[in-house]
Write a structure and sequence with these properties.
mainly alpha, MetI-like fold, two-stranded antiparallel ribbon, 10 helices, 2 strands
Length: 314
C-alpha cells in the first residue's frame, strides 16, 4: 500500500472515530436535556402540591390547591409490567432455545422471521385484539384465581370485567415477547461450537448441554433483553389506554390485580387535553419524570448485573 492509501485509511479512521464519539455525546446530551426539562417543569407543580406525591391517590391538578399523587399509577404500572415479564421472559427464552437448538434447519429462519414480525404490529392492533379475542381467554383464569386465592389481597375479586391489571400484563407480555425472543436467539446462536461439542463429548444430553454451555453463555444477553422489554412494558401507552378500565374518581381501590386503574403513560395520554396551564402540565410532567427515573434505574441495574457477570466469567 502506498503513502496515499495509508493517508486515506488514517483519515477514514479519524472520521469514523469522530462520528462515533459525536453520536455517543449526542445521546448523552439528549438524555440530559430531557431530564433537565422534566425536572424544571415538575418542580413548580410539586412545590404547590398539597398531597403526598408518592402515597396519595388523589389527582386534582387544577385550582389554587392542587392535590395529586402517583400511588395508583405506580402500582398499576409496575404490577402490569412484572406480570408481563413473568410471562414473556420464560416463554421468549424457550422459543429462542427451540429456534436455535431444537428446530430443524429449514424451520429456523421462517420461525425467527415470524417472531420478529410480531414487533411490527402496531400497538392499537394489540389493544383491539386483546380486548376482542384475548379477553375471553384470560377471564376464566381470573375467575379461577379469585375463587381459589381470594384470601390474598392481590387476588381479591373486584367485579371489574374489563381491562384489569392482570389482563394488561398478559397483553404487554405478548407485545414484548418479540424483543426477548429476538435478542435471546441472537445470543444463543453465538455460543461457541466448541463449548457445545465439548459438553456432548463428555456424555451430556441435549438439555444438559444447553444448561451447562448455552444458558451460561447467553445469560448477559437474556438479562439485556429482559430489561429492554421491561422498558417497553413500562412505557406502553396506546394499547394500555385502549383496554384499561379506568377507575372513577372516589371509587374504592385495592391492591388486587383484578382491579382497574391507569398507568403513568395512559394517565398522561388520557388527560392531554388538560395541558392548558403550567400547573396542570407540571403535574403530569412530574408523573412522567417518575416513569423516566424508574426506567433509568431499571436499565442501570441491568447494566450493573451484566458487568458483574462479565467480570465473573473473565
Amino acid at each position: 500500500m502506498d503513502d496515499r492509501g495509508r493517508s486515506t485509511g488514517r483519515r477514514a479512521d479519524r472520521l469514523f472515530s469522530f462520528a462515533s464519539q459525536g453520536a455517543g455525546v449526542t445521546v448523552l446530551v439528549l438524555v440530559t436535556l430531557v431530564c433537565v426539562f422534566l425536572v424544571s417543569q415538575a418542580i413548580p407543580a410539586l412545590a404547590r402540591n398539597e398531597a403526598s406525591f408518592l402515597t396519595s391517590r388523589e389527582w386534582t391538578v387544577g385550582g389554587d390547591a392542587p392535590r395529586f399523587g402517583i400511588l395508583e399509577l405506580l402500582w398499576t404500572t409496575t404490577a402490569a409490567s412484572v406480570i408481563a415479564m413473568l410471562v414473556a421472559v420464560p416463554v421468549g427464552v424457550c422459543v429462542a432455545l427451540f429456534i436455535t437448538e431444537y428446530a430443524p434447519q429449514w424451520l429456523r429462519r421462517p420461525a425467527g422471521n415470524l417472531v420478529d414480525l410480531l414487533a411490527a404490529v402496531p400497538s392499537i392492533v394489540y389493544g383491539l385484539w386483546g380486548l376482542i379475542v384475548f379477553r375471553p381467554i384470560v377471564r376464566p383464569i381470573e375467575d379461577w384465581l379469585s375463587s381459589r386465592l381470594s384470601w390474598l389481597p392481590i387476588f381479591e375479586p373486584t367485579g371489574i370485567t374489563g381491562g384489569t391489571i392482570f389482563f394488561i400484563g398478559f397483553v404487554l407480555a405478548i407485545m414484548i415477547l418479540p424483543i426477548v425472543t429476538a435478542i435471546s436467539r441472537e445470543v444463543f446462536a453465538q455460543t461457541p461450537t466448541t463449548h457445545k461439542e465439548g459438553a456432548l463429548a463428555l456424555g451430556a444430553t441435549k438439555w444438559e448441554m444447553i444448561h451447562t454451555a448455552v444458558l451460561p453463555f447467553g445469560k448477559p444477553g437474556v438479562i439485556s433483553a429482559a430489561m429492554l422489554a421491561l422498558g417497553r412494558a413500562l412505557g406502553e401507552t396506546i394499547a394500555v389506554t385502549f383496554i384499561v378500565s379506568t377507575l372513577a374518581v372516589g371509587s374504592d381501590w385495592t391492591w388486587s390485580l383484578f382491579n382497574g386503574g391507569e398507568t403513568f403513560a395512559s394517565r398522561i395520554a388520557n388527560n392531554a387535553a388538560e395541558f392548558d396551564s403550567p400547573q396542570k402540565t407540571g403535574a403530569f410532567i412530574a408523573a412522567g419524570l417518575v416513569l423516566f427515573i424508574l426506567t433509568f434505574v431499571v436499565n442501570a441495574i441491568a447494566r450493573v448485573v451484566i458487568e458483574r457477570r462479565k467480570a465473573f466469567t473473565e
